[in-house]
Amino acid sequence: MQHSSMNAAALQGSWGKRLLATCVCSLATCGVVSAADAPQRPPAVVDSYIPVAPSDDSLYQALGGHEGLVKIAADFHHRLEADPQLGPYFRDIDAKQYQERLVIQFCEVSGGPCKQAKYDMRKIHSGMDINKATFNATVEVLQQTLDAQGIAYRTQNRLLAQLAPMHRDIINVP
Ligand code: HEM
Fold it and tell me: Residue 163, SS3?
């Protein structure tokens, strides 16, 4: 339990650094877009924080690569569905799509060979009434999943650190 709350706290920690990194990246990108390119570009669909991909795929490998992530996503989803507090959020969703998208997101944030899908966490979770306690409960279920899948504690923390800044986009009620 101490283990869980430590990670939950860590998850809410280092978002600032990463938000800063995102801002810097966005500014850099702005600088290289010419006016002629602008009309052809699709409208921006992302207003949420996007983690910076690690410089290598060691985290992705430590999570078991694609096969490992498929197992983690399925187990995580089943545990969320079975949880009395969290289950109602996950009823009536497209289970296959949810698990596939989690795999892609975890692949991206862990340095795996995935296309940047840039999920807009703020938009996706808007209207779900997610408070801090609900968010932390979800993180605890993720930790239980990672434990059950035999993922080392250090690897768990590396993944959680990547997801950390997202709490700002996902928690949307006091
Ligand atoms: C670090 C925390 C979280 C991460 C990384 C995360 C990530 C994701 C991703 C990648 C998706 C799929 C995106 C898509 O369908 O396009 C998703 C969907 C969803 N998330 Fe989260 N999520 C987090 C926290 C939460 C919390 C706290 C809840 C509520 C208890 C929640 C409820 C949902 C639900 C219900 C969907 C399905 C939406 C739908 O298909 O209509 N998530 N999340």
Answer: helix
